[in-house]
Design brief:
Length: 319
């Protein structure tokens, strides 16, 4: 499954006494992280957007295709790293969810699973130069709660709380700088809401928290027995308007901010925190129980990661 190429310059260059490496680059978010020593695992950056907080009992089957391309990498100050540096990540994520008609705490409850298939192609002048492809880390939700429509004056509010866990099921090798798997467990819960002020207008958000447990078999050239990416918060926001029946047009955005340092063997790494923002147009077309989403994003304000463009196509069917 893996295509190997030699790192440029004979290995990974040290800068400021630290190894520049990609411990777990890319995945189904297609907005992979690159810290000076470690990287955050992939997360949902712009993959969900319009009417995100609205859901009803039954089954959902969804396929999300995304393509991420970056022609520059940013350092801890947001400056462009010198040289020719490129990343391309394609992912296809199969998502299956079930929601009961029985209520708990006034909300319907359910569970879901997401399985990513990924290809990563990384080519940098500062170190890693490799390609990997295969199944990435599976995301499971043992329980989520979806509240029915709540009336607020003449408006409506839909809300959901979801407990997501990312499991180390993906392809991973500690000798490789580029992997579609992360070899660590992450807890990534979120709160989603959609506010509907008029029948045609809606505003949605999904607010995440990310906690990463330790990787006990990190990238060999880190020279450590334990590696732990820092904690982070990330969010998607969107606004859409129903232009004609079944067709919505709007704008969506995402943001990520790492709020604690990466750690090697328990010691914090200064200047290792990641940040990125992205924004772009989108549309949703619905007919019957089928929905199609198309979104494009341009990134800016990146730190310790690549900065590029992302396209997302999502096809959903409810039962």
């Amino acid at each position: 499954m893996r295509s190997k190429r030699s790192p440029r310059g004979g290995g990974f260059r040290r800068r400021g006494g630290r190894i520049l490496a990609v411990a777990a680059f890319g995945l189904w978010s297609a907005a992979a992280g690159l810290a000076a020593d470690l990287s955050l695992p992939p997360v949902n950056l712009g993959d969900t957007n319009f009417q995100d907080g609205i859901a009803f009992p039954g089954w959902l089957v969804q396929e999300t295709l995304s393509l991420y391309r970056a022609g520059s990498f940013r350092d801890a100050d947001g400056g462009r790293r010198p040289g020719e540096n490129r990343a391309e990540i394609f992912s296809a994520v199969t998502h299956v969810a079930w929601m009961s008609r029985t209520k708990l705490l006034g909300a319907w409850y359910g569970l879901e699973v997401l399985v990513p298939l990924v290809r990563i192609d990384l080519d940098t002048d500062f170190g890693p130069r490799d390609t990997d492809r295969g199944f990435g880390d599976v995301t499971v939700c043992p329980a989520f709660l979806q509240w029915p429509e709540a009336r607020l004056g003449g408006t409506s509010l839909f809300q959901r709380v979801n407990l997501l866990f990312k499991l180390p099921t993906g392809d991973y090798a500690s000798r490789s700088a580029v992997n579609v798997g992360t070899h660590l467990v992450s807890f990534n819960p979120y709160y989603a809401a959609t506010w509907v002020p008029t029948p045609r207008l809606e505003a949605s958000t999904r607010l995440h928290y990310l906690y990463n447990f330790e990787n006990r078999d990190p990238f060999d050239r880190l020279g450590a027995e334990r590696a732990q990416p820092g904690q982070a918060v990330h969010a998607n926001v969107a606004v859409s308007f129903e232009a004609i029946e079944g067709l919505r047009l709007g704008l969506s955005a995402y943001g990520l901010k790492q709020v604690s340092d990466d750690r090697l063997d328990g010691e914090p790494l200064s200047r290792s925190r990641e940040r990125v923002l992205g924004i772009g147009p989108g549309l949703k077309f619905r007919w019957g129980s089928w929905s199609v989403f198309l979104h494009a994003y341009r990134e800016f304000e990146a730190e310790n990661r690549p900065q590029g463009n992302k396209g997302v196509f999502r096809l959903a069917k409810t039962f």
